[in-house]
Specification:
5 helices; mainly alpha; about 150 residues; about 5% strand; two-stranded antiparallel ribbon
């Protein structure tokens, strides 16, 4: 059980995920400031305050047990999410993709070749040469994949 946990932790994608979380956490203030200080004031100037919390608002109960339900807050969260996603895409992802395309053209590669590393290209060629045999029950190792990592008997 400990060996399995060790293998899981040492896999590359777990480490990549941990690094991505740390980088995202460090990057969050930049995106927050872009949305709160640039995009939201711009939208607020055009359409009024971009807050939909009071849309559909109603009160349940009476007296001191009264509670205010604000279904519009979900709409506010959705709009906020879309603004963050748009800010990240148009200010970061799109320019980075364009820069990568220019760099690939300078190196004489097409965009698809530039994205695939040499190791991935080699593994793809090996997979294609095997004809997908391992996942389909054949392959050089025999037995094939059964979904649980066991050989077929």
């Amino acid at each position: 059980m400990i060996q399995g946990f060790k293998k899981f932790i040492m896999r590359g994608n777990v480490i990549d995920l941990a690094v991505a979380v740390v980088i995202a956490n460090a990057f969050k203030p930049i995106v927050d400031n872009l949305v709160e200080k640039v995009i939201n004031p711009f939208i607020g100037g055009l359409f009024g305050k971009p807050n939909f919390d009071s849309v559909g608002e109603f009160t349940v109960g009476k007296g001191k047990n009264a509670a205010t339900v604000q279904p519009g807050s979900i709409l506010t969260a959705l709009v906020s999410f879309l603004l963050v996603a748009a800010a990240v895409y148009f200010c970061l992802v799109y320019p980075m993709n364009k820069a990568n395309e220019r760099l690939a053209r300078r190196k004489g590669l097409n965009a698809e070749e530039a994205e695939v590393s040499e190791e991935v290209r080699l593994l793809t060629e090996i997979r294609d040469a095997l004809g997908g045999g391992y996942m389909n029950g054949g392959g050089a190792a025999g037995g094939g994949y059964t979904g649980g990592g066991y050989r077929q008997q």
